[in-house]
Specification:
Length: 231
């Protein structure tokens, strides 16, 4: 039976790759990835040489048909994203749905768990994370205000992703909606300039603005005391 591996890869530090991830990449006949240049670097580092097929959120139906066709021929395929776990703010689930619809149980879909920015920040949030809400990226234009309002009104702590270019704007928007909230912001996690900012939203925003270092961010907004007693 052909195998379709959904493989988590490092979010920065290459040593975070798992043995199973390497095994799956070696077993695959083809590797589906977002940016072939990014994935080629990862594969070169681990001396894995495989044909790469680009697959991203705007890929056309023809690309899905190509993948399904390869599986039908008995080829093994691994799906990776630029960083972290496929399907978490990254492509994957639509393709898996299509594979299941067309091939049903004649293909083995195998998740290979590993790094994800979401779990990495949750693991060091130092607040109760028994229940939390993950909201992905803020929308860029319309509905931004509703998105941030949902965060400050949430009865659970919320995790969201943000790019280096919009982090300050997003934190300031949250601050305007509720100056009392607390944040834990992880920048460049697992990388050389990893920094974790903790405290009131005003202090965290100020510190990040002052640091002036660009980098990917994942942010936890602590459940607001107004919405329930925080543990
Ligand atoms: N699939 C990925 C995962 O499992 O975390 C997320 C992909 S999403 C397109 C990329 C976003 O994840 C970045 O913009 C940033 O918000 C977050 N992220 C990825 N790597 C990170 C890191 N090393 N430190 C902090 N945030 C990171």
């Amino acid at each position: 039976m052909p195998e379709f591996f959904v493989v988590a890869t490092p979010i920065g530090n290459l040593q975070d790759i798992s043995f199973r991830a390497l095994e799956a990449l070696k077993r695959a006949d083809f590797i589906l990835c977002e940016d072939t240049r990014v994935s080629q670097k990862l594969l070169n580092h681990f001396k894995i040489s495989k044909p790469l097929i680009s697959y991203h959120q705007h890929s056309k139906l023809a690309k899905m048909e190509l993948v399904v066709g390869l599986l039908k021929k008995g080829k093994n395929i691994a799906l990776i994203s630029d960083a972290g776990t496929p399907g978490i703010s990254d492509p994957g689930n639509q393709l898996i749905k299509e594979i299941i619809q067309v091939l049903g149980e004649s293909v083995n879909i195998i998740p290979i768990p590993g790094p994800t920015a979401l779990a990495t920040i949750a693991s060091v949030a130092a607040i109760s994370m028994d229940k939390f809400l993950f909201m992905g990226f803020p929308p860029q234009k319309k509905r931004r205000n509703n998105y941030f309002k949902e965060i400050v009104d949430s009865k659970y702590s919320v995790i969201f992703y943000e790019s280096p270019y919009r982090i300050i704007k997003s934190l300031k928007q949250l601050q305007e909606l509720d100056p009392e909230i607390e944040a834990i912001a992880g920048r460049e996690l697992t990388k050389k300039f990893e920094t974790i900012y903790r405290g009131g939203i005003d202090k965290v925003t100020e510190k990040i603005e002052k640091d002036k270092i660009k980098g990917e961010f994942v942010v936890v907004i602590r459940r607001n005391k107004r919405n329930g007693k925080e543990k």
